Structure formats: structure tokens, C-alpha cells
């Protein structure tokens, strides 16, 4: 079984200013707006990071799940870990493991060549865990580098720019009890959890998911992202201009700790 991180979703109060910060600091470019999120009372914009994606959603209606999440975590932050399974069977197996562990399915769609399964963030404790299946090339031929329906298929390819930011390296999930959090995510993903010193990790196909104790006063959530970068100094200079600089290996944007990895 292979699970690839394809997209991270952040939730914010303001869309344009957040996208402007992400573009200016990380040298990435907006590529797609999905009008379909309107059914959830949201607007969004996506940007490619390598051949994967960063999405920002903003609630524009009252009493949305995203709005409640903003309130619960006292501001902007990480929201969803969106992955692609290599086969339909493995996508459905993740769904089954969630149910077997008492975790609800928040929303799902089955189509001829595209399945979506969003696993409930309240039950997963830190974030939505979404596992999708793309059958556009045939069930036995997963393409982790190409077609991605949430970004409109393939129309985003000319927006890829890796001169500053190359790709994701890790996702950091936090909770008061990181051991319990890691065990749950490992059970649902069907992947082993390993310990590196005091930190627990779970390896997806292309990134590491790291489970840490919540120490920032914001409780459980998607607190950090590691990015592989090609121009650290350019990122830091832009972060200073926009008030996002924290240290020479960390900037804060949209309530998320972005750690820079050469």
C-alpha cells in the first residue's frame, strides 16, 4: 500500500492577503480556484509546491466547519492532510480502518475515476485526513506526479516553480498526547509508527508525518510544515519584509510553522 501526500489545506480569515504572503515568501504561484468548495460555505485558492499543492480556504458563510475550526484554534492554521492512495482498494481500506477504529467519515464521493474520502477531524484529533483515489490512468497505474482533480486536473503544470521552494518534506501534527495521536493515525493509515528520540513519526510515500506535544497554547492541530527549499536567504528576506520571520530555519505564515530544509 502506498499513500502519497498531494495537498495541504490551511484555513484563514482572509484569502487574498494570505495568498500574497505565501507567493511572496515561498516563490510559489496561485494556480486554481475550486468553485466546488462553495457547497461548504468556503472560497479557496491553490498553489503548487513542486508537483503537490498548498490550498487556503476561507469561510464566507456562518456556521461552517472551517469557521468552527478557526474559532477552536484561535485563528489561522493547518486544516487538512490530503493524500492519494495508489489503488481504489487501498483507498477503501483506509476508509474501512477508520470505521473499524470508531472514526467517522465526514464526507465522501464515489465517481467512475475519482473517489474522495474525508476522515473526520474531530475523531482524528488534529486535522482532516483525506485519502483520495485517482483512476484516470487505470486502477493499477497510480500517477503521483500528474493529474489531480482538486487542482483542476493538469492545468496547473505551467505554474510549477521550484527555484525557491522545492517540495514538502514533513507535516507536523500536535496534540496534548502525541503518543495517542500517532497510534490513531497509524491505525487509520495502516502504516507503522516509529520513534526517533522523543518524537514519533509515520512515513508516507513522499513525506514524514511527525507527532509532537502541543506547547503553543492552541491545542491539537496541524501546527507545522517542513519545506525543502532552494533559496533559503530569499525566503528569509521576504519573510522579514512581511513580518513572518522567526529564525533562520523557520517562518510563520497563516498560523503555521514553516521549517526550511536545504
Describe this structure in words.
It contains six helices and 15 strands. It has helices spanning 15-26, 65-72, 88-100, 121-124, 178-189, 232-241, and strands at 3-11, 42-49, 52-59, 77-85, 105-110, 114-119, 128-134, 165-175, 193-196, 199-203, 208-213, 221-229, 245-247, 250-253, 256-261. The mean pLDDT is 96. The chain is globular, with a radius of gyration of 17 Å. α1 (15-26) packs antiparallel against α6 (232-241). Helices cover 23% and strands 39% of the residues. It is an alpha+beta fold. 42% of the residues are buried. It starts with a strand and ends with a strand.
What secondary-structure arrangement, pairings included, does this model have?
Elements: E1 3-11, H1 15-26, E2 42-49, E3 52-59, H2 65-72, E4 77-85, H3 88-100, E5 105-110, E6 114-119, H4 121-124, E7 128-134, E8 165-175, H5 178-189, E9 193-196, E10 199-203, E11 208-213, E12 221-229, H6 232-241, E13 245-247, E14 250-253, E15 256-261
Parallel strand pairs: 1-3, 4-7, 8-11, 12-15
Antiparallel strand pairs: 1-4, 2-3, 5-6, 6-7, 8-12, 9-10, 10-11, 13-14, 14-15
